[in-house]
Predict the 3D structure of the following.
Amino acid sequence: MRLKVGELARRCGLTVRTLHHYDAIGLLAPSARAENGYRLYGREDIARLHQIQALRRFGLSLAEIGAYLDQPDTALADLVSRQIDMLDRQIEQAGQLRQRLAQLREQLLDGAEPELADWLTTLELMTVYDKYFSQDELDRMPLYRNRQANDPEWPALVAEVQAQLDAGVPAEDERPRQLALRWMEMLVRDTGGDPRLLVKLNSMHEQEPALQEQMGVSPRLLDYVLRAFSERQMRIYERYLSPQEAAYMRANYGKRAGEWPQLMADVRQALETGTAPDSRAGIELARRWLDLFRSYAGDNPATHAKFRQAMMSEPDLAAGSWASGELLDFMRQAMGALSGMAGLRR
């Protein structure tokens, strides 16, 4: 059985124009044509359309979908499994949303008269979290549980930092540095020390302007915190560096700081999947780590030794950091494997 383009469009909920576009760009060409030139779609064509629509739901562009489907041995069963997983998450999230709405209704019916605006704000916040985190991730993220319980600790800290910013206090001053350390330590605590959750949290904050407004954490405020925390770290390193080395560090320290969370998240993932430090993947992580380190430490081995001495001698450098002892031990072994490879090439 073959379907004409109009019949296929009606059956799958697409427009004829969309199917024509897929044909024009080579994404879904009909396998046959009638004598009058009408496009005819068979079983294999419809299976490919299923794949296209599934991948669209995963957020891929049409160009990315075409590249994916052109790979040999593309397994339709794997794609259907991913669809099932996505639907399971959506069902779970819908159930959570229903539960929250039922709780709101019960309070209203009981005459408790909660502040409706507060409830709706909390509901919106929790629904936003559901878009970026799995239920397992939410279960092990204290930040999420604290927001559900309306914990006042974060709002109080945000307000105090905002007051410093509004008063024109430089980020380099002592009080902002103290607040920035507290901010980072709370963030480590409330992500369970998992940099992978930090990466998702950063993505959520960046892509949800409404969330920024509700939390009071504007990009300007966050930049203020990060500058104050960087100043704290640099002042510790400066105890070990020459004036020239310190000047180079200060000129470059913040340029690629945004790359560290993703790198630490990748290392944490490697740890949990049992990746060996001396494996190809482990050595590639070491290369990335060394590249970021050199971006502010330069290329002089003697300077590198000073930074290592600071890190070994100053436990305060680890405060407010997701670089756990296990993570750093993995990287030391991976760095050793990378150095060994470089020695063999000489």
In short: The two ends are 66 Å apart (CA to CA). The mean pLDDT is 85.
